[in-house]
Amino acid sequence: MAKNLLITGANGQLGNEMRNLLADRREFNSFFTDIDSLDITDAKAVYHFIESNKIDTIVNCAAYTAVDKAEDDMVLCAKLNVDAVGNIAGAAKNYGARVIHVSTDYVFDGYNYQPYTEDDDTNPKTTYGTTKRDGEKMLLKIAPDSIIVRTAWLYSPYGKNFVKTMLKLGAEKDSLNVVCDQIGTPTCAADLAAAIMSIITHEEWIPGIYHFSDEGVCSWYDFTKAIHRIAGISSCKVKPVKSKEYPTRAIRPLYSVLDKSKIKQTFGIEIPHWEESLEKCIKVITENN
Ligand SMILES: NC(=O)c1ccc[n+]([C@@H]2O[C@H](COP(=O)([O-])OP(=O)(O)OC[C@H]3O[C@@H](n4cnc5c(N)ncnc54)[C@H](OP(=O)(O)O)[C@@H]3O)[C@@H](O)[C@H]2O)c1
Predict the structure, then answer these.
(1) What is the fold, at CATH topology level, of the domain defined by 3-161+187-215+256-272?
(2) pTM assigned to the model
């Protein structure tokens, strides 16, 4: 029997990649919604949608993701990243659906010196990170059978993201300052969507928190140099600077590499290196332009 899947926030980066992967999957009856068709902050609408469409599995790709703006927009950020997750959890519990929810490396403080595991203590330093941590807690309290996938440094051909910004700035400017003391791993949204599909199609539902990013480690400076090298941009000089020379409204974690051992072992997932996936994504972006 076809599984009824609900993908919320389907017009975002991850949501679009879920659309791509589900396009040919006839065994699933997929519902793609965004704020115009299902506002997840509207509890009544969420309960009604999940009940009336007999949803089996919800992949929550909707979130408040503007990290700096969140510092001045705490109420809406919490409404979306905490209360709305409660709506999804409550409806899932009522009508027997399962939830895959996406969270972030920003739940950590960034003071680690080795990759964060799912057992490490959270200690968010920003409004975005705090609301995402509270959303995780809310979900597990109401629907403890859920799966949470924490990811980091997401990019894709869709919407606004670091890769698209650096391609644009690289083409327009002679030089750019980029921070070199924040370390993490870029994640192609298509790879995350593929990992979520592996979870959905796995023979057994294994609840819990999982970490997912692409393989490898780099700074935003290294990431920018790779973006420009792959795109053939040579006219823009990229200069490494420290975070204190590039202040932002929300403080970024200095180290946010995620340990992916658990998701790889549990679901048999093979993860590409970030540079390999970056090449593929830049090819799609340039072909679309
Ligand atoms: N982007 C990153 O670097 C990053 C890093 C780590 C983790 N994550 C997590 O990964 C997940 C996916 O991120 P993403 O980059 O794909 O996000 P995104 O591109 O910002 O997409 C989020 C989508 O949710 C929609 N949305 C906003 N309010 C809504 C509402 N009330 N009801 C329904 N939909 C609503 C947004 O619409 P509008 O565009 O109209 O607001 C957008 O289409 C999120 O949980 C995020 O926290 C992201």
Answers:
(1) Rossmann fold (3.40.50)
(2) 0.98
